Amino acid sequence: MSLKTPILGAALALSFAAPAQAELEVHDQYARSSNPVTGAAFLVLHNHGDTDDRLISVTSDVAARTELHTHREADGVMQMIHVEEGFDLPAGGEIIMERGGNHVMFMGVTDPFEQGESVTITFQFEVAPDLVVEIPVDNERADMAAHGHDDHDHDHGAMDMDAEAEKDEEHDHEGHDH
User: Which of 21, 41, 85, 99 could form a disulfide with 104, with the two C-beta atoms 3.0–4.6 Å apart?
Assistant: First the structure.
């Protein structure tokens, strides 16, 4: 067996993996925290490829737990919930993660988020390889205006991350492991 065969095979495998990574783009990303123990990240994740995918999970070492979350209305009350099945990421489409909607939630933050620092998140997909992204902390940012979204269209009244954390804590005690 020639040494060329394994090297050629590895190079060929890398050439197929690299384009999949390049087809995913993250922009308008920022993280914030309104208290020392919880935080959230907001961003737009765009799939420039021609293959449908699914964002299935997120990880980060800045918190005890990092999850995909969304807000849903139940009996006239907005509730934040963990989206265990993840989010669809269609070919040519995007996932918008914004306040009052889909987002990355950090619970049990190990160190408070400081303005100007960054947090690292790893996104896991069904098809594409993992994507590691540095997210700047911007505790002063109020909306996704740079992306053309109006935060007040998605805001749910007085709910802030403290209230979200309390709801999440209640949600955690409904049969989920810690």
Answer: 41
User: Is pLDDT above 90 for 49?
Assistant: yes
SS in 3 state form for the chain? Answer: CCCHHHHHHHHHHHHHHHHHHHCEEEEEEEEECCCCCEEEEEEEEEECCCCCEEEEEEECCCEEEEEEEEEEEECCEEEEEECCCCEEECCCCEEEECCCCCEEEEEEECCCCCCCCEEEEEEEECCCCCEEEEEEECCCCCCCHHHCCCHHHCCCCCCCHHHHHHHHHHHHCCCCCC
Which is more confident, 1 or 84? 84
Q: Supply the mean pLDDT for the chain.
A: 78
Q: pTM higher than 0.85 for the full model? A: no
Q: Of how many residues is the chain composed?
A: 178
